[in-house]
Amino acid sequence: MSAATDRQWAVRDAVLRWLLAKATEGYRSPILDADAIGAEVGWVASPLTRDEVVDASMFLFKENYVTGVPVMGIGIPRPMLTVAGRRVAKAGKPLRYKVDAHEAKVRRHLGGTAGRDIRDDDGGSEVKERMARPVTRR
Q1: Does the residue 108 lie in any domain?
Q2: Number of domains forming the structure of the chain
Q3: Burial grade of 107 (CB within 10 A; 0-12, 13-18, 19 or more)
């Protein structure tokens, strides 16, 4: 992954940890503040920007880790942890861990062929079509 992607995931983790810390202190729906988040979680990289925090809050909202009222250009100005968000934050694992685990599960489900060509059994060069439709459970 690129450094920008790594930072994006780290900002999401920082916002989630900050929200858990604030909830523990009794502030269920604090106002997003990049400087406060950085200070609370011990952010040592270059300072968090408002845009990064807005993007992180929107990601957390879309993934149902926080609830609140989305405002265009501001994200979720007063996010509140959901039960799922609290569970993930308390676990202490990076959010990316869940995504990586899901991708590994998909690869196992597809028999380890995700993203690779499947060749004919006779070694021919014909590439078989990979199943692209979603799996439905009955």
Answers
A1: no
A2: 1
A3: middle
Host H or E run for residue 66: strand 66-67
DSSP letters for 21-46: HHHHTT-SSPPP-HHHHHHHHT--SS
* Domain limits for position 55: 3-101
Helix (H, G, I), strand (E, B) or coil at 81: strand
Is 136 part of a structural domain of the chain? Answer: no
User: And the tokens for 35?
Assistant: 């400087």
Inter-CA distances, 116 with 122, 127, 131, Å: 17, 10, 12
Structure tokens at 101: 């685990």
Residue 80, strand partner residues: 67
Q: Mind listing the pLDDT tens digit for each residue in 77-101?
A: 999 999 999 999 999 889 987 665 5
Q: Which of 40, 39, 32 is nearest to 56 (CA)?
A: 32
pTM of the complete model: 0.71
